[in-house]
Amino acid sequence: MQTLIFNQGDASESRIYYCAHYLAHSIGLFAAQQLQVHFTTSESGGHTVQGGQVPAVLSRAADLTLGGPMVVMKHFQQHGAELQCFCASVAANPWFLAAAQPQPDFQLSDLRGKRVLDVGNVGTATLTFRWLLARHGLQGEVELVAGSGDQARDFAAVAHGEVDYALHAMHMLAPAIVAGQLCSISSLANLCGHVPWSAYIARADVLREKAPAFAAFSRAITQALAWMATHDAAELAEKVQPFYADYPRDALERGLAAYQQARVFASDSIIPRAEFAHFSQLLGAIGWLDPSQPVPYAALVTQAGAEQ
């Protein structure tokens, strides 16, 4: 039996769109690969290279983590090709817009002259939304308001009409939506195009040293992603609910259904070169990456287990 230590960051990092590995564990896909995956956490998470789970991987306290390939790209520009993405997880932007009332015919142009409350204040998500506004000629036409740090207060502000929209991940929005406080208006997934938003990450040298274990992990995730594509949200929620013990079941089903409908989950473990390039160009355009320093796909992406 092979073993991998998987550091997930702090508790806030365990979002419902990060459920493929939980499903793989729940339905015995890791076990079928003769693989044990030990889930660990850090005291602090984060949205940059300094986030809690990345140092755990860099220090070899953990074998792998899950996060944005944007972190691997940033790390490359700062330190070289020490980290690699090796297996896909989230293949599109998981952020949504929500409002107090349904808007079935919503178009992005409807944001003109409106106020959008950026509840999460997550760096790359905020910058990506600004990129989206600029791309649609809405730069300067939409007031993006920073969240207060109090999610309940911010959602109430939208529900009471103090601001027009909330911008956040469906993981956070789903409980307010099932409670009737907010309505889902639009996913940003299709608007931004397919990008490798999140992937499994490890040190390049550890990937080589433990190649059979990482190949087994990727095969199990590939099978989990295929299962997710052929089962509805209620079935998926039943399998992963134990890993979200404090998350309301109706919200879990609603959130997972929204992510399935928006095609946020990767279809398999492959991280396509074209989508990686699109994402790196987007990240350069928003200032997350230095656009003068290319991020090479071949050095930063490996497909562990794909050949098997």
List the helices and strands and how they pair.
Elements: E1 2-7, H1 20-26, H2 29-32, E2 35-40, H3 53-58, E3 65-67, H4 69-79, E4 83-90, E5 95-99, E6 115-118, H5 123-135, E7 143-146, H6 151-159, E8 165-169, H7 170-178, E9 183-187, H8 189-192, E10 198-203, H9 204-209, H10 211-230, H11 233-240, H12 249-261, H13 273-285, H14 297-300
Parallel strand pairs: 1-2, 6-7, 6-8
Antiparallel strand pairs: 3-10, 4-10, 5-8, 5-9
What do you see in this structure?
This protein has 308 residues and is of the alpha/beta class. It has 14 helices and ten strands. The strands form three sheets. The chain has a five-stranded mixed beta sheet with strand order 7-6-8-5-9. Strands 3-10-4 form a three-stranded antiparallel beta sheet, with helices on both faces. The protein has a two-stranded parallel ribbon with strand order 1-2. Helix 5 (123-135) links the parallel strand 6 (115-118) and strand 7 (143-146). Helix 1 (20-26) crosses helix 10 and helix 11 (233-240) packs across helix 12 (249-261).
